[in-house]
Fold this sequence. Notes:
The structure is a homodimer. Chain A is of the alpha/beta class. Chain A has two domains: about 5-50, RecR Domain 1 (Helicase, Ruva Protein, domain 3, Orthogonal Bundle); about 75-170, Dna Topoisomerase Vi A Subunit, Chain: A, domain 2, CATH 3.40.1360. Helix content of chain A is about 40%, strand content about 10%. A four-stranded parallel beta sheet of chain A has the order 4-3-5-6. A two-stranded antiparallel sheet of chain A has the order 1-2. In chain A, strand 1 (about 55) and strand 2 form a beta hairpin. The radius of gyration of chain A is 22 Å and the shape is globular. In chain A, about 30% of the residues are buried. The model of chain A has no long low-confidence stretch (mean pLDDT about 90). At the A-B interface, helix 1, helix 2, helix 3, strand 2 and helix 4 of A face helix 1, helix 2, helix 3, strand 2 and helix 4 of B.
Amino acid sequence: MRLPKAITRLIEQLEKLPGIGPKTAQRLTFYLLHNPQTELDNFAAAFQNLKRETVICSICNNVAETDPCRICSDISRDTSIICVVEQPLDILVIERSGGYTGLYHVLHGAIAPLNNIGPDQLHLKDLLPRLKSDTIRELILATNPTMEGDATAMYIAKLIEEKGLNNFKITRLGRGLPVGGDLEYADDITLTRAFEGRKEL
Amino acid sequence: MRLPKAITRLIEQLEKLPGIGPKTAQRLTFYLLHNPQTELDNFAAAFQNLKRETVICSICNNVAETDPCRICSDISRDTSIICVVEQPLDILVIERSGGYTGLYHVLHGAIAPLNNIGPDQLHLKDLLPRLKSDTIRELILATNPTMEGDATAMYIAKLIEEKGLNNFKITRLGRGLPVGGDLEYADDITLTRAFEGRKEL
């Protein structure tokens, strides 16, 4: 059976989203057919305005409503620490944990040679001028604990050393067992890191 | 951190979809931020036109581009059999299997007292006139093999009997082990049905 074009079109659009396969896209589309037109219009508006009503902060590259963003323009934040993350979503997660009060810098990616993403594709150039300020005490490289994230962190650390900008601490987030995790299910590398990072009680 | 309104709005919209939780909605929204505006416009158009460019077939209630739908207006189909299904998606699945060449009737639901869906909420009234034709030889009640689907099938069968329309066969799809399934993982009811429905080799 050939499906109506309007249905096929929405199925094909939804299939492009990560983690949504053909079956799920189909199920969602047929579910949406039961929704009133106003609800479909709400969906349409939300998609259309996603980027139109957001800007990239010219200081930290976070996605925001204003430039500079809410965090960069918040005078109560600690301007002596900058936390480098891969994606804007990482900021959301860190802010939710509530333990960090410094500033951020979003790279919008990580070095991944297999996907043709080198240092030039990242928002790295605008990080260096921020580090030249004398107020900076620490730079936290909070890229993901993956091959790409580690490579990116090493690259940034080396770049800073080359530029002679190392009058501040450079740190990386601690590695070890996740809280609530089970020793039995920890992988070898995580366990090795947990032993390396052990602390006296 | 308060997220930009445009981002929150899309997250909230996506969360309304079945099977998409807050985390997935967030991940999808931040993924979409990396898409060009034209792609977001494509999404918007697909949502907006889903219902505008489709109609409900006045004969079988299937979702279609034309009225009557492609199947109802196909003269090569067997008009002596009508297969009753719960949803338009069911037609897609049956058509894909390729083994059925008759007509359909979509109920757009099943009797579910817990969700306040009674026979009046279903597209049942327009089924009876279709059965008055002398050409009908068989009515397949292909509602889902669930409590609701079974109740709906029983209700329809009884209704037809009451109206004295039983000059045709009324059937229900066979129950048993799914092809490729494993006896070990079959549930008790399925196994009981499989024994009841056993066939001589």
